[in-house]
């Protein structure tokens, strides 16, 4: 008689969104959106920045997966514009995309996964000013 195996494979369980809404972010400071969490599948990353006078540059989302750093970046973000993390196969992990269209129509069902995952966001200012920085991560755990 064959030996019984464990339970059938189950898909990762969807989690509440990880979210940061940072008023008056400090230039160059990383804000944690999803603290280091085991066994994560990142489904989507969304971010945006609001400002009144001086355009910041760049807007960055840093993902640490199993000790490897991946940076999504947009050099000249437009105020209140929604940006989505996009994997660029043709560039290295320090220059991944933040784009204005969601990749939901892509062939991928998720963006990243790993045994240990952390997501952070930052903005760099020429002149600090009152503003708001947002970042949202949709993810699942197994």
Total DSSP E strands: 9
Report how far the terminal alpha carbons are from each other.
30 Å
What order do the SSEs take from the amino end to the carboxyl end, as H and E? EEEEEEEEE
Using only C-alpha atoms, the radius of gyration works out to 17 Å
CATH fold node name: Jelly Rolls
Please mark out the parts with pLDDT under 50 across 5 or more consecutive residues, or reply none: none
Oligomer: single chain
What would you say the CATH architecture is? Sandwich
What structural class is derived from the secondary structure elements? mainly beta
Beta strand %: over 45%
H/I helix tally: 0
The 3D shape can be described as: globular
CATH class: Mainly Beta
Q: What order do the strands of the largest sheet run in, or round the barrel if closed?
A: 3-6-7-5-4-8
Number of domains: 1
If you average the pLDDT, what whole number results?
Answer: 88
Major β-sheet annotation: 6 strands, mixed, barrel
Query: Fraction of residues in helices?
Result: under 10%
Structure description:
By secondary structure, the chain is mostly beta strands. The chain has a single domain, classed as Jelly Rolls. It has a six-stranded mixed beta barrel. Strand 4 and strand 5 form a beta hairpin.
Brief summary:
The chain is mainly β and 142 residues long. It is 0% helix and 51% strand.
Characteristics:
single chain, 142 residues, mainly beta, Jelly Rolls, six-stranded mixed barrel, 9 strands, 51% strand, globular
List the SSEs and their pairings.
Blueprint: E1 13-14, E2 18-23, E3 31-50, E4 59-65, E5 68-74, E6 83-86, E7 96-99, E8 112-123, E9 132-141
Parallel strand pairs: 5-7
Antiparallel strand pairs: 1-9, 2-9, 3-6, 3-8, 3-9, 4-5, 4-8, 6-7
């Amino acid at each position: 008689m064959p030996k019984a195996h464990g339970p059938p494979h189950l898909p990762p369980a969807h989690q509440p969104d990880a979210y940061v809404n940072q008023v008056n972010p400090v230039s160059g400071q990383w804000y944690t959106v999803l603290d280091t969490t085991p066994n994560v599948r990142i489904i989507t990353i969304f971010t945006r920045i609001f400002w009144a006078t001086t355009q910041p540059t760049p807007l960055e989302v840093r993902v640490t997966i199993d000790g490897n750093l991946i940076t999504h970046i947009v050099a000249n973000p437009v105020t209140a514009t929604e940006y989505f993390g996009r994997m660029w196969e043709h560039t290295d992990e320090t220059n991944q995309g933040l784009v204005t269209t969601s990749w939901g129509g892509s062939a991928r069902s998720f963006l990243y996964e790993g045994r240990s995952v952390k997501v952070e966001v930052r903005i760099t200012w020429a002149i600090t000013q009152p503003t708001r920085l947002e970042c949202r991560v949709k993810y699942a755990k197994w």
